[in-house]
Write a structure and sequence with these properties.
Blueprint lengths: L5 E6 L3 H9 L2 H9 L6 H20 L5 E6 L12 E7 L1 H8 L6 E6 L17 H9 L5 E4 L2 E5 L4 E4 L2 E5 L6 E7 L7 E5 L1 E5 L7 H9 L12 E7 L13 E5 L3 E6 L4 E5 L7 E3 L4 E6 L4 E4 L1
Parallel strand pairs: 1-2, 1-3, 3-4, 4-18
Antiparallel strand pairs: 5-18, 6-7, 6-17, 8-11, 8-15, 9-10, 9-14, 11-12, 12-13, 14-17, 15-16
Helix pairs in contact: 1-2
Amino acid sequence: MSLAPRAVLVHRRTEYEELLARHGTHGQAAFFLSSRGRSIDEVARRHERTRQALRDVAAAVPLTWRSTRVERADLDRFLFAPEDVVVVVGQDGLVANAAKYLSGQPVVGIDTDPGRNPGVLVRHRCADTAALLRAATADGGTVEALTMVEAVADDTQRLVALNEIYLGPPGHQTARYRLAPDGDGSPGEAQASSGVLVGTGTGATGWLRSLWLERGSTVPLPAPCDPRLLWFVREAWPSPATGTSQVSGQLGRGQGLRLTVESDRIVVFGDGMEADALELTWGQSVRLGISATALRLVV
């Protein structure tokens, strides 16, 4: 017998909750902000809007479904199931945070603060939740398959991301490595830089775009569903032992970029989740390319 769908509500601590965790009480947090010319009132109002949105979304889950909640900090320890429908209640970035732990489950983005969030990935309002949940499980439901990027190390460690993957030194200083197209058989160019960024069309509104603008790149930025990635080397350093001839490019489906570590330690993390990173040491290699898994965003 097949299981009923499970609605997984993904959320994160609000700014107000973070203030309370640091200062202990509402009064102490209010004093801390007021002593710096700021008020806690708007922070508390945003907190209440978020809590109310979570209550409204939870109430919209069909009675025949199962449901649970997971906080952003616990995503790396949560086990998603094939029958899950993931409901992200919060900001656009929270969708990216959840995406790396999914394997094709449909995702519904609910905007808790319209007008404050861009609404690129959290496109819907709380009142739409019931209809969106039905659409997510119906045959022929409309979803967008957003391209994701993956890193696969030579020891089988794997990481995927919706916006971008960063490879570099833990302290964002200087890493040494060799960079080459995957499969061409060459040792690659020896480089020293502050890291390499490989991004998708969804990430083309953030970190990837800033590097693209800085370089004055003539390669068009990909759209979220395009099967294409762009990559840039950050602050490559020319020296007698290191070069700068391969500092940007694009990858299509089936193409890859290979990085071989020549430093004591390089970290690989996606979408800003540095606490959940791969660690590579001297001699290891990692391949970057388009992930076979896409984010299925309910539209």
